Amino acid sequence: MIFGLSIHGLYFGMESFNMEKVNDASLSKGIRISSAVFLIMILVVLAPTWVLIPIPYIQRNVPSNVYAVPILDSTLYFPLFGITVVKLLQQKPIANLLAGIMLIKTVTVCLSWGFAEWRSTVVDYPMAIISSLLTVVSLILFIIYIFKLEDKVES
Q1: Which of these, 144, 50, 152, lies nearest to 99 by C-alpha position?
Q2: For residue 9, what are the contacts with CB-CB under 8 A and spacing of at least 6?
Q3: Which helix (H) or strand (E) holds 3?
Q4: pTM (2 d.p.)
Q5: Residue 111's CB: how many other CB atoms inside 10 A?
Q6: What is the pLDDT of residues 37-96, one digit of tens each?
Q7: Is residue 39 a contact partner of residue 85, using CB atoms and an 8 Å limit?
């Protein structure tokens, strides 16, 4: 159900944008490259983490509630992160839209991950710090993205 809702939300969210304005919008080279590098970093950090989290449960044949988020991210969002990186580096207009969506997705993933780490009965400090830093960096990049994109669209 979560997977279906995510695809549904992503599809109808993108469909609601005026594509003429998306095609007219542009991002500076600095925003494109910093967003692309950050999304690559997210893939390098989170993809292995999401694969490693359920392995102990799978090995012990113990059901766990942690499967849904890693599976959703690994099958839907991580490939979209990769597509967005390629489109950003190719300077495709659709990347202007996808970059913002992926940055806000990163904020929400890292924020919920951070809350889970900090509120755990045994806090894993390195993971809690990494998730917190990624949340802050993605939020800052998203805010910069919003302001830079607005400036380009309005002018």
Answers
A1: 144
A2: none
A3: helix 2-15
A4: 0.77
A5: 17
A6: 999 998 998 888 877 877 777 788 877 666 666 777 777 888 889 999 999 999 888 888
A7: yes
